[in-house]
Amino acid sequence: WFLYAEDGPHVSYHQLTHFMQCTEHNPEFDGLDCEVFEAPEPMTMALSVLVTIEMCNALNSLSENQSLLRMPPWVNIWLLGSICLSMSLHFLILYVDPLPMIFKLRALDFTQWLMVLKISLPVIGLDELLKFIARNYLEG
Length: 140
Fold this sequence. Notes:
Elements: H1 13-17, H2 40-60, H3 77-95, H4 99-103, H5 110-120, H6 122-138
């Protein structure tokens, strides 16, 4: 997102990881407005990805070794409720005034939410793969 999205900040990974060195005199940041590192839009994307990944990790933690297909999320209704509450609170700070101003965030549009999901949902597949390996190759 930070490199390729039309509405993204168009910074390289190196610039992103070395943002504290961003000055107008640093040639590594030529043509880049250093304000982008304090802009609310990228911070909102980062927070939304973090929250979504953590909710996916909560789903993955239903069982240490069983797949979500064998132990579906609705077996723990309290977990689903807490995920819904967490996401509701996240939406609250994004979309209900004056909270976005207080938290220095911006509302995300549909395409940005799709990008958040594209970045976050692979966590479930990765954990399912690790559970498969643990079930089939590590357990005696």
